[in-house]
User: What shape does this take?
Amino acid sequence: MKKIILLSASAIMMLAYSCKPKNSTEADNSKDKAVIESPAFNSDSAYAYVSAQVAFGPRVPGTKAHDGCAKWMVEKLRTFSKNVVEQKFKARLWDGKTVNGNNIIASFNPENKVRVFLSAHWDSRPYADHDADEKNHRTPIDGANDGASGVGILIEVARQLSIKNPTIGVDIVLFDVEDWGEPEGTESPKEDNWCLGSQYWARNPHVQGYKARFGILLDMVGAANAEFAKEGGSMYYAPDVMNKVWDIAGQLGFSNYFVSRTNNGITDDHIYINKIASIPTIDIIQHDLTTQSGFNKHWHTLNDNMSNINKETIAVVGKVCLAVVYQEK
Assistant: This one.
């Protein structure tokens, strides 16, 4: 993922303000009820799902770790849903090589035309190109936060959906080959060399003519004391969805995590879903004001491991996702 500026901060804020509901009291009352009715989110369970992915080793496409983790995720999701599909595809990388990718989708209430989707990427970066030690720059990372944290949360969400059936249709979409963009320092990098699984899915959805009311992407959502700002691309394409999610987070008491500021846009899976599939989709992603990259300090380093995964942060994001899903009618 690389930063891009889509709109000025003032333009984004004006757009966001214009999309707030006129009758905020009525909207808030309905959300309060939905929040109360949401099922519990088990952070221990989600943490175990994150740990299980990392235990396979770096989940780089074309490796045994990647294949083993895919098999485990499919088997686990099939314990929660009868509708799990593997969307296998070939992806051409930045260097011209081709790898096999596998998007994994679990659906709930597949007959319901009113749908939302929740997503994350499950592959891990083949290059620790932001590691402090240059010798590690071509070493694959564990990707505990960058990838596995979002997937772990969504597998726990799937478990909860299997216990309490939602009113609407829900799809859990796990994207592959997200993080194999050019190594840092490559001459003339191209944004479209990232997020290859979501680009494929946006052009070739798992169900022909697939439509969803909106989508939520989780990326780097497991670090302690994480702050999730309103990402600029999300505010450009789907400000009403982002404001809805942040409002629910506030009602749950999580405004210290879901902060009100807006940051620059980021090239991530949601951008291609908005552009290609025209499904309003937002990105919940940590924004760190203390780092030069703006991402978590362990981003694309060998320190992106289980020692930096925090159960409280996982619980916050998971509870917000469940509240959003059970609010929809």
In short: The longest helix spans residues 144-163. Strands lie at 83-92, 98-108, 115-121, 169-175, 214-219, 228-231, 258-263, 281-285. The mean pLDDT is 91.
